[in-house]
Amino acid sequence: GCGNSALSHDLHELGYPDVTSIDFSPACIAAMRARYAHCPGLRWAVMDIRALAFPDATFDVVLEKGTLDVLMVEEKDPWAVSHQAVAAMHRVLAEVSRVLRPGGCFISITFAQPHFRKPHYAQEAFGWSLRHAACGDGDAGAFHYFLYVMRKGQPLDPSDLALGRWL
Fold it and tell me: pTM for the full model?
């Protein structure tokens, strides 16, 4: 869900001419369409991330920033995620994999630490490799966030593949 973030517009301004953004909220999408009506390369759609209405292999890049975190918001223990949350995450990631072109890239930006998030991403069925990096300003008191990059058509490392079997 793009929410009311300026990220889509920022990407457009950085030279990405064709950006499609989705959100579950019709009111949000209507507001974003109005706000950025002057940018014809920005497209907005009301859509559920669990059932994307795009054809297979539509996108070179899929970017999510905190959207997947919503699937875990009701979990009481990050070490023991419910079957429902695991299934919801798998469903969304399967949809992302489906709409990515071969060689395409899925980028996920989140506060979720690798030991919590990598098992979800490291599923052989998605057909992608997995890398991650911690980001932040280095201040010991600051929150770090994590960047996960999955490349469609590249294999998982054996250590990542093993993580995916934990779920």
Answer: 0.93
